[in-house]
Inverse folding.
């Protein structure tokens, strides 16, 4: 079994992700090689909550430039995790 902290890399903090917290949905950047069941088990283990659903999406790297230097942002995988009624993650509640 993989270490849960290797599956869930970091939370995504944005206006859209904070608006979804009212619907018990939390957004995380996850390891692109993980599947939904591994993500569910990792979130349940790290935050001690009950997960009812996991939606995943792959993100493309976008071209960026600073002056003459061109590059790309990193690609990865996002997971939107829905919790059971009455559950919440305290990490996000300090807004």
């Amino acid at each position: 079994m993989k270490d849960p902290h290797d599956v869930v890399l970091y939370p995504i903090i944005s206006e859209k992700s904070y608006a979804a917290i009212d619907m018990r949905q939390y957004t995380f950047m996850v390891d692109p090689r993980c599947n939904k069941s591994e993500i569910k088990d990792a979130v349940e283990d790290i935050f001690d909550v009950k997960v009812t659903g996991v939606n995943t999406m792959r993100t493309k790297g976008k071209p960026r430039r600073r002056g003459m230097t061109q590059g790309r942002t990193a690609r990865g995988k996002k997971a939107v995790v829905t919790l059971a009624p009455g559950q919440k993650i305290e990490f996000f509640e300090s807004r």
